[in-house]
Design goal:
Elements (H helix, E strand, L loop, with lengths): L7 E6 L10 E6 L3 E9 L4 E14 L4 E9 L2 E10 L8 E11 L4 E9 L3 E9 L3 E6 L8 E3 L3 E3 L5 E8 L7 H11 L3 E2 L5 E2 L3 E3 L5 E3 L7 E8 L5 H15 L5 E7 L6
Parallel strand pairs: 3-11, 6-8
Antiparallel strand pairs: 1-2, 3-4, 4-7, 5-6, 8-9, 9-10, 10-12, 13-18, 13-19, 14-18, 15-16, 16-17
Helix pairs in contact: 1-2
Length: 264
């Protein structure tokens, strides 16, 4: 698809009054990009990430969005420039994507200025707490040229583990309950995530966990538990023992994550 070269269409609105006012210029900015927030979990840090995706698809599977990021003390600056198409374009019409790893942010407020092609600047505020990241526009001015689908990203507390058990054959439909009950028999506790958006999933109004990455299996059962001070090594032993017991008879997969970035 053709990249829109003209970002702004300028409408001249002339006052009907007789007081000789100058013409008013109104700028209509095409929405070109979708922004989303994510938190990368590692054993040593929790890094805030900004992901940018073009609204329009491009006939190049590996096209990227050219992003420039800088920081001055607590003020953050993001510049969204051109769409970059590599020489070796892979076939497929999909949105162009880009990502900036901002890094670990302490709790507080961070002015976030988003510059679109050096034509439009969106001035906002990124607020960081123990429980969430949130973005708000300064003085309630609407975003121009970009859209942020979820302006709140919920964070995961240290005591929680979560995941899903996936399988194809209905003969394995008892495995999720068996696995979850096994974790609880070994000390884990029932808990929940509040409704909202998270890095890898969202929780809807029915408390269902909807993963951003679609499962390759026919069936999937999600769970969230309080690890109740159980160590990573203890959790790994439980997962390994369950796999050893049932893997030879059933085709299934367990994805289990911790708030420190561990995956079992």
């Amino acid at each position: 698809m053709r990249i829109t070269l003209a970002l702004l269409s300028i409408l001249f609105c002339f006052s009907a009054c007789n007081n000789g006012d100058d013409p008013i210029l109104t700028f209509n900015v095409t929405v070109e990009f979708n922004l989303s927030m994510k938190e990368n979990l590692t054993e040593t840090s929790k890094d805030f990430v900004i992901q940018v995706e073009s609204i329009e698809g491009f006939n190049c599977d590996n096209a990227t969005v050219d992003l420039v990021f800088s920081r001055s003390e607590n003020e953050l600056f993001l510049s969204i420039d051109n769409i970059l198409k590599p020489n070796g374009c892979e076939e497929g019409v999909i949105p162009a994507k880009g990502e900036i790893i901002v890094g670990s942010l302490e709790n507080g407020n961070y002015p976030l200025n988003i510059n679109l092609r050096d034509v439009v600047v969106n001035n906002g505020l990124l607020s960081v707490t123990e429980t969430e990241y949130s973005y708000t526009q300064v003085e309630d001015v609407e975003l121009e040229g970009i859209v942020i689908e979820h302006n709140i990203l919920n964070r995961i507390s240290e005591e929680k583990i979560w995941g899903r058990i996936e399988y194809n054959d209905d003969s394995a439909n008892q495995l999720p309950n068996k696995f979850i009950n096994n974790l609880m028999d070994n000390g884990m506790l029932q808990t929940y995530f509040k409704i909202g958006n998270y890095s890898d999933f969202n929780i809807d109004s029915n408390s269902m966990m909807n993963w951003h990455q679609i499962s390759e299996f026919t069936n999937s059962v999600s769970f969230v538990l309080d690890r109740n001070l159980l160590s990573d090594s203890e959790i790994k032993i439980m997962v390994d023992n369950f796999n050893d017991q049932y893997q030879s008879n059933f085709d299934f997969d367990i994805d289990l994550f911790t708030a420190t970035g561990k995956e079992f």
